[in-house]
Structures are given as C-alpha cells and as structure tokens.
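thread: overnight batch results

M.L. [08:02]
morning all. the overnight job finished for the chain we discussed friday. pasting input first so we're all looking at the same thing
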Amino acid sequence: MARLHTGRQKVMSTYRSYHGATAAAINLTGDPRRWPSDTAAAGVVHFWGPYLYRSPFHATTEAEECARALTHLADTIAFEGPATIAAIILESVPGTAGIMTPPPGYLAGVRELCDRYGIVFILDEVMSGFGRTGKWFAADNWGVTPDLITFAKGVNSGYVPLGGVAISAEIAETFATRPYPGGLTYSGHPLACAAAVATINAMEEEGVVDHAAHLGENVIGPALAELAEHHPSIGEVRGLGTFWALELVRDRETREPLVPYNAAGADNAPMAEFTAACKASGLWPFVNMNRTHVVPPCNITEAELKEGLALLDDALTVADRHVSA
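M.L. [08:03]
and the structure it wrote out:
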C-alpha cells in the first residue's frame, strides 16, 4: 500500500527487528532469521535504531541516543534519496529482537522525517499492540500516530488466526479511487473478526490494559530491578507493561554478552544451561541470544506473576556462574 500510495519502491527498517516470514517481510526483518532467505531484495534498506545499552552511536544518555539515532536516519534517507523511499517501518517496541523501548522523542522524530519527505510511517504492533505495553497500542505511550499500523496476535488472543492493518484516511482515499491488487481467500473472515470483537470487548470490560500497566509499573519493573541487584549476570532490565527483557552478561563493566551474537553449539552453553534450569523448575522461558524476556499474559494475577518471578530468580543463579570473576 505504501509503495502504491507514494509511487516509490524503497522501504526502510532497522537491523534489530522482525516483521514476518513472507518474501518481502523476511527481507525487511533485521535479525538473523532473515539470513537463510535473504536475497538482498531490491527496495529494502536497513538502518540502526536506538539501543542505548549497546549504542551504535556511542551515546551515554537517552537524549544523546535519540538525537544521534535520528541524525543517522536522516543521513541514511538523504544518501538513499528521499524521493525513492516509500515507507519506514518500525516495531513501536521491538519484540523478539530485544524489547528496546525507544527513547522519548524518537518515534516523534521519525514521524517528522516522514512528514518532511512524504514517506509513509508504518508501525508494526503485531507483538506490542492490544494492551501488551499498558496501552491499547504501544505508540500511545509516546503520543505518535503512524500512517499504517500492522496488528495480529493480541487482537483476538490467538483464538483464530487474524492479522490486519489500520489505515490512515489519506491512504484509504488512495484506494477509494483505485483497486488494491491484493487480498487473500480468508480476508475479513467472519469467525476471526468475531473473535476479535469479543476479545476487545472482554479486554475493556475486565480492564486488561490498565491491569497490564499496573503490573509493569508496580510488580514486574520493581521485581526485575531487585533481581538485578542480586544477580551479576543481569546487565540491563528494560520494558513496560507486560513486555520486558533481561540482558544477560558476563561482565557488567564491559557489557560482554553472556553468549556471542547468534551463538550456537558450545558457544551458547551458558544460555542453554539457564534455559534448562528454568524448565526444570516448571518455568517455560523465552530466550533469544543473550536475553530472556518476561512477557506474561496481560491478565495474569499478581500471585501467578510472583510465582514465576521466584522461579526466574532461582534459574538466574545458573547464569551467574558464567560471570567473569
């Protein structure tokens, strides 16, 4: 839609990202899941997004990281040619790539760059949407409105497969006067859409979004900060709502990851041992490279959450064994 709306072909995305597994989406993806299917597709340009803990811009504060990341993006746009770029796509909060919450002002800065050059701003909220960050959409945490929002997963709690895109009035107008050459056999499936309506109604009635915000602010955030005080393997805690990551390291001073980037086999042994310890206690973890994520159901009870955090506390002693003396 962005390409047809603008008449341009390039789409930009960050290296630490995941946008799907179809031919175009896997090339937009920035993490190693892209590599086996990567054709270096024409029309895809990757750039560095903000990630203060491992800043590619040598920043030391959120303000520096934001400013330098936006300068980098502006420079990339300039050298790629603004008139060739159809869209910039970002995960509002990257999911499996690391749950790096953007610094204040970053998404607004990307919005301004897109407006300046007539670029469509797409936010991927497949993971972060529908309550996950304590807001209906993660972008609401920063008061930013994109031109397109992709969504799935939480829209109907996965009861029936469903994905969709929210479209701005301007882009909708483009396709009011020309057909969109797409669509699938199951587009607009009544059963999937009914599940979405029921899920959204239940989330409103049960206060699920506010509950997720409460858990993040008053339970998960403080508990993970306390774990970081006791476990030298925790380099950083980051997140919001029910969307958190622990970055595990060998050395807090150097920030050396517990395992190398995209490690496998013996190189990944420390994370494998940590994962095994979680499972042995009855906790099923999500791990990616040197991180473990804390992403419980948005309607989890405080008691259930504290039980899981206690199991995580125990398992982290295994990661601590690999910390440099």
